[in-house]
Amino acid sequence: MTTRTRRQSKGDFISKMPDDVLLMILSLMPVKDAVVTGSLSMRWRDLWRNLVRLNFDGTEAFHKMASDKKLCLIERCKYVNQVYNVITSHTHPTVHDFRIRFDLDATESEEIDEWVEFALEKKVETLELDLMDKTYEIRDPDENYEFRLPSSISMAGEMLSLKNLFLKGVSLLGPTLNDILMISPHLEKLYLFGTDVYPCICFGGQGINLKYFKLVSCSGIESISLHGFGLVSFAYYGPEIELHLSDLPKLKEVVAGEVSVGLENNVFSQISSCALYLQALELDVRSPKKGFEVNAIIKLPNVKKLLLAMDAEEDDCLLEFTSIAQACPSLETFSIALHWFSPLKRRRKIRRVAAPHVHKHLKRLEMSGYYGRISDLELAVYVIDNAAALEKIVIDPCCQAYGGRLSKEDCLKRLPAARSSAKHQLTPLLPPGVDMAIL
Q1: d(C-alpha 54, C-alpha 28), whole Å
Q2: What is the dihedral of CA 135, 136, 137, 139, to 10 degrees?
Q3: How far apart are CA 332 and CA 304, in angstroms?
């Protein structure tokens, strides 16, 4: 068989595939690429119009826009026109996923309103508006597009299909958030990133089906109060706030970002009503060297995964924070993320905890930001000494610097020394049967 014949046979094979298979292939592409396939043949010309996943990913243009500001307006016009042309030609009655990813702000509010209305009228299940600045910085809240429910959406429940809502770089005022929850009984995931939000977020009740609620770098929040529904996971990354979690019997995971000095914002008292249910806990502790209140820690009997992210700018002993791990008798995975600007080292003797604590179920230690300082070594030794069931140690020497003050080049230069220190310090201490991986 000639090469040409083989190619024709292959082409015939693809053209004989059912429409649903071809649409599945097209759904894996960005929309602009899927539309181009319409020029291949009569068979393909209108196929893309029936896509149920519309992913308008414009991140490829970000690099050009960042280096040439004159291109911003041109690229924005191209992107807006592309979305408009697709949605006005779309013929399928439903859209499962609708994703917008581009540097857009309040100046495009009218167009974005139309896109949101289109998606909701198509009974969308996953709606994502990623309007982050091209440099991935948090935009001034006054410049953000404000997410509003279209006037065509009534309070009769026209958002019955919406299951996942992801908003990045937008504004979402309190009344709108409550309205969304009221008319979206099947909404399970709500993710807000770089979003300007009403100061007091408060909702609950049996009519809410939300299971996953995540807020990252959202401005304007002063307090969050959640109560009386089946929430499974709650994550908040940002400055300290008042947090009230009550009557959430299905809550398994809590993430609390930027816990203040000495835990004086009472994060443990804020989650105490959920302590019996939690299986995973993540705390981002800022400036730990200034004080730590051990008595504030509560018992966490069912926590199996614990992550402590700590400011480790200086080579101060951080062993007191192992008290949180000691409050988790079922702990299986202990993760420690050390954040620093420069790998300051001090010459001092290694310390051990005054009263050893046996972790009967702890099998895995993960440490990122390990550089070989005494404070790093002390934490690793604590686990090696006290984890009776230890099986695996994973060391990631890559620095996780607060504020991104270290360039990628600076981090890469430090990696060989960090890897060497980890291998030299920890290999002789490994108990038999414990495996160690240095990334």
Answers
A1: 10
A2: 100
A3: 5
Would the pLDDT of 437 be above 80? yes
Query: Domains of the chain: which residue ranges?
Result: 304-439
Angle at 261 between CA 294 and CA 263, to 5 degrees: 40
pLDDT at 206 over 60: yes
Distance separating alpha carbons of residues 311 and 284, to the nearest angstrom: 8
Tokens 């926590």 found at: 303
Cβ contact 147:169 at 8 Å: no
Give the rounded percent of residues in the chain with a pLDDT score beyond 70.
Answer: 79
Burial of 69 (0-12, 13-18, 19+ CB in 10 A): exposed
Band of residue 284 on the pLDDT scale cut at 50, 70, 90 = confident
Measured CA to CA, the distance from residue 130 to residue 111 in angstroms comes to 15
Query: Per residue in 352-383, is it b (16+ CB within 10 Å) or e — as a string?
Result: ebeeeeebeebbbbbbbbbbbbbbbbbbbbbb
Q: What is the pTM of this model?
A: 0.85
